[in-house]
């Protein structure tokens, strides 16, 4: 009897694909990823100097 090789299941999660201080640019990048069929989201964070940065996340698919 042959043993079946076990495949590792890839976990789904968020991956940062773009960081910018400009919100409108982040929205355009988000739309670009959504146009390609990806699920994207925008988040904001503050760096240590106090400036706001907008991050574009893409959700990884699990297989």
Q: How would you sum up this structure in a few lines?
A:
Helices cover 21% and strands 35% of the residues. With 63 residues, the protein is an alpha+beta fold. The model has no long low-confidence stretch (mean pLDDT 85).
In sequence order, what are the helices and strands, one letter per element? EHEE
Strand order of the largest sheet: 1-3-2
Class by alpha and beta content: alpha+beta
CA-based gyration radius:
17 Å
Q: Note the gap between the termini.
A: 27 Å
Helix count equals: 1
Can you give the helix content as a percent range? Answer: 10-25%
The overall pLDDT average reads 85
Strand-residue proportion: 25-35%
User: How many individual β-strands?
Assistant: 3
Shape: flat
Please outline the major beta sheet: 3 strands, antiparallel
Low-pLDDT runs of 5+ residues are none
Question: Which terms would index this structure?
Answer:
alpha+beta, three-stranded antiparallel beta sheet, 21% helix
How does this structure look, described?
The structure is a single chain. This protein is α+β, with helices and mostly antiparallel strands. Helix content is 21%, strand content 35%. It contains 1 helix and 3 strands; from the N terminus they run E-H-E-E. The chain has a 3-stranded antiparallel beta sheet, with helices on one face. A hairpin with a 5-residue loop joins strand 2 (40-46) and strand 3. The longest helix has 13 residues, at 23-35. The protein is flat and about 35 Å long. The two termini are 27 Å apart. The relative contact order is 0.33. The mean pLDDT is 85.
